[in-house]
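## retry 2 of 3
previous attempt timed out at serialization; input unchanged, resubmitting
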Amino acid sequence: MKTEWDYTALADAYLKRPDYADAAIDAMLAVMTVRRGDRVCDVGAGVAHLALPLAKRGLFVDAVEPNDAMRGHGIARTQHLEGVRWHEGTGENTGQPSGAFRAVTFGSSFNVCDRPAALKESARILGHGGWFACLWNHRQLDDPVQARIEALIKGSVPDYGYGTRREDQTAVIDASGLFGPVVHLDSRVVHEQTAAECIEAWRSHATLQRQAGPAFGAVVEEIAGYVSGLPQGIVRVPYSTHVWVARRT
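## retry succeeded, writing output
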């Protein structure tokens, strides 16, 4: 399916991107009062970084992903789980039946949708009182290693920014008029990567690729040179998993 951003070339590297904090996922499901056996639609499911932990918690997951390469990795990673089905679709047009789900989730994908249209589509496929959630992993930029990486990026892309993926999502959810009070959750997690895994993860960084343009490869090589020189070749990356949750009115 053709979308504004083509993630085909990034799909392999997405496998090395960090998982969400388990505590944040558990807190999200607790707020939603979602239980084993409930049906969840995970939109923009990518390579299953969120669909996989949801399924492991006993939920039936319909994973919607527009990109063939990403969806292929997701299918491979979840093929041992009976409760996961994959579909081609987008946040604005999931192709899913109306009123079918207890919850709709967007793992690092809400920011690449037309957010008002995606909220309208989420409300359509949710049952009465169903739940919407969007979440992202944010690197903690006050960490010395991450601060140095940010400096390397801004040396080549001075106006580099993270756009809506680092914004508070409350206003856009409230503006839809489709969901009740928004709950914000966050939980910290530290991932350890080898230098090679860290570099591969940066090769999948779509936000940086879009803003760096032709300089993307050179920026990643600068990051590679820096992290390769870290002691023992290990990179400790502190993240905060941020979640916004709201109930359909």
